[in-house]
Prior knowledge:
Low-confidence stretches of chain B: 20-28
Order of helices and strands of chain A: EHEHEHHEHEEEEEEEEEH
CATH architecture of chain A: 3-Layer(aba) Sandwich
Number of domains of chain B: 1
CATH class of chain B: Alpha Beta
Mean pLDDT of chain B: 91
Number of strands of chain B: 12
CATH topology of chain B: TIM Barrel
Shape of chain B: globular
Strand content of chain A: 25-35%
Oligomer: heterodimer
Number of strands of chain A: 13
Structural class of chain B: alpha/beta
CATH superfamily of chain A: Class I glutamine amidotransferase (GATase) domain
Largest sheet of chain B: 8 strands, parallel, barrel
Radius of gyration of chain A: 15 Å
Strand order of the largest sheet of chain A: 2-1-3-4-13-12-11
Amino acid sequence: MIAILKYNAGNIKSVQNALTRLGYKSMITDNPSELLSADKVIFPGVGEASSAIHYLKERGLDKTILELKQPVLGICLGLQLMCLSSEEGDTKCLGIFDADVRLFPPVDKIPHIGWNNCLTLKGNLFKGISVDDDLYYVHSYYAEISSSTIATCDYILPFSAAMQKENYYATQFHPEKSAETGEKILKNFLEL
Amino acid sequence: MLKRRLIPCLDIKDGRTVKGVNFINLIDAGDPVELAKSYGKQGADELVFLDITATIENRKALADLVERIAAEINIPFTVGGGIDNVNDVSILLNAGADKVTVNSSAVRRPELISEIAGQFGSQCIVVAIDTKLVNDEWIVVVDGGRTTTELKTINWARRVEELGAGEIMLTSMNNDGTKSGFSLEITGEVSSNVNIPVIASGGAGSMEHFREVFCNTGCSAALAASIFHFGEITIPELKRYLINEKISIRY
């Protein structure tokens, strides 16, 4: 069973829809024992960092996330919350990835919305994906490049498009909204 | 590199897709879910659904339709039509919409934009601005172009950005339905005066019109309806053409 973390962020149903299209059963839950016993956990989300962290802490879900041993996939805000800190709401995050999250400098349109390609793709998540494939992004804050970065994207500056450390994977783009390329990446994660 | 987006727009009336010339004389152009799937397969970068008969009673039916669309398509989509409060937004986002668009209601009550952005984030709020050239000045019109306001388009565009809009969908009513091309003038002016993405809308009639608006303005996306629905231009041929013209497009 795939568990999708339920919290006060949007876009959670879209992830479940994508899994259903790929033929995977999933449940949306904030129950720690269901999260800990799932085969895979997805930590999705579109929303605001400080209120999301506040919500997770209130329910002890921050600790549950750090206890997970199975493959975990953070998406968009999920990725940012797995970093050290975010400039959004001056938020201390979960600290899984050794990177800070910053607001894009205003030298081009913000948010970064639309389809962009990834460079330097590393690891199983990107099996069958090329640097010419585009993925869908929508965000105003970005994670810096760090030792956990497994793919970069260039918009205004190079940033982490995807990160990985041990069993924790995360993407800044939305695989669930990125057509066939996104489905391949989700499938790669589900088959880990 | 970030790609320019191509966005088919589906006008919805009683659960079916329609497109009017200058917003009147509606013609049925098919089932929205089927059209949406087909556009996704053809390579549309995003979709917009506008419920043009939105009423309170229709809200539930629209949410059901959004749910069916969300289950079927794997690209982002925006839903609009008669949204005038945060609760409407919450229903549509929960049903699976990625973004919502507001138009007349935001002109009447601009705080609606900051309320939506505050609760759900700027990324999910697209402010639609309908504009018309009146006495040599681009001004904002509402109610599908029937009501003229005092607002200058540039000023309103800057204001919606300040209020937290994530994108602007700009429709020139002088061009809409004419198939004579997008208004390069107001699209260019708005794009260079705000720091959020602008979606050009109104007037697409040929592949050349898309090249024109991408080459001559800073718009991030171009939206069209009838030329796509009736197969006058298909998305794959348009994308091939734009790539040949050295425009950065997802293919």
